[in-house]
Amino acid sequence: MPRQADPIVETPAGTVRGLRDRSGERYRGLPYAAAPTGAGRFAPPAPHPGWSGVRDGTRPSPTAPQPARDFGRLDMTPYFGPGWVPGGEYLTADIHTPAADDGGRPVMVFVHGGGFVTGSNRAALYDGGAFARDGVVLVTVNYRLGVPGFLDLPGAPPNRGLLDLLAALGWVRDTVAAFGGDPGNVTVFGQSAGATLTGVLLATPRAKGLFRRAIVQSGNGSGAFTPEQARRVSAVAAAALGVEPTAEAFAALPDSRFLAVLPALAGLDLRTGTAGDPLAGLSPFGPVLPVQPADALADGPAAEIDLLIGTNAQEGHLYLAPHGVLESTTQAELLAFATRTLADPQSVLAAHRAALPDATPGELRSAVLGQVLFEAGTTRMARAHARISGGRTHRYSFGYRSTALGGRLGAAHTVELPFVFDLADEPWLHGDADLLGPAPAPAGLAAQVHGAWVAFARTGNPGWAPYDPQRPTAEVLGGETAAGTAEGMPVVPPRT
């Protein structure tokens, strides 16, 4: 029986019961689309039929099928969450709101990362209490991942995970007022894969009218696969599964087979005569587009959207430090990696060495990886957006260095998230194997970063001057920005 204090909300799909906490009200596992099961896994998201009675919104939903991820000595559980929690109805949203009233508050919709193959809104890092405390309605969404979400197959629409996000934003538009939000003031923000997808939304015509602002945290404006690259991945996946590369053939297989085939897709050489691997071999999945998002912003709502965009100062450290590769990389391995990922590796390495004269081969490898995966595409998107939006672009660089792994993790990919969500003092983030390391978080940094995100969602201004491509600068949050970024020295971007 529900407690008398439990909040009850009437939505267009039915009635839902949530929970109250110190920061407001929380509603979990709300479906924004029908469960993607069977052949529906390779179809566009379908409307949810709704429900009768009172739906229990106090418990999280299942999650998208996904493999476990190993980050060596670093505990990334707060980022990835529980992994695959089986169940068909996982196209869901969680809402954390100050109150389900007619408050008309700013709405922020968060898109999780995880390399397009892992992650969910159940991750501890995405707790929305601080946003609700500060007068924002936070919505966190799940979407299809891996083979069902992004493998390009004849007979199936491409980018099904992106179609899920479009459906989720339509659901937010139609539903969030019941939870105290303003559907006319929606900010989409994502990190890593979620940030790259947020950038794709900026270039997507169907996204017009669904949101007003966007925040791209460590994404890649040039991170889309070409159709040729996507066909190469599909062919290898089909061969490994022993089926034809069609939606019909794949629809007959269980999700567990799609996870089992992932090792066969690792390390594919996706370089073509016209394009390098946009994700540097870290994932065989991602958006498939004929034109990179940063070059297609005029096709979508970008010109009318306020954009906050940035990267961390040592992004590549996340992929090297936990496995000891930051220390063990040799000069030969550095050159081999640069050759695989850059059109002119010698020039880029020379520029990085000039900017970082004391860097080890591992640190230079991290710098190249960060440039290819995040910095170059971020610069490309920031410049393109600034050209068409009339002063609506703001850029940041997050520089606080985690003390995890004996201080080696540094200002790595994901380290900004506890500050964005104002969770940096949580004890489960502090320890040598935890994301922020044993040292306490700097006093005031979480309030500064979280406050900037909230201010941007309210007004479009995070508190610093707009980005100007003619005099490019980024607001430095929590330390020094990286030397040798794509704006700070003459580098050669990856082939596109």
UniProtKB/TrEMBL annotation:
EC class of the enzyme, as a word: hydrolase
Pfam families, per the entry: COesterase
Superkingdom in the source lineage: Bacteria
GO molecular function, one term: hydrolase activity
EC number in record: 3.1.1.-
Residue segments, region Disordered: 30-72
Domain Carboxylesterase type B: 6-463
Keywords attached to this entry: Hydrolase
Family: Belongs to the 'GDXG' lipolytic enzyme family.
Protein name: Carboxylic ester hydrolase
Protein's organism: Streptomyces subrutilus
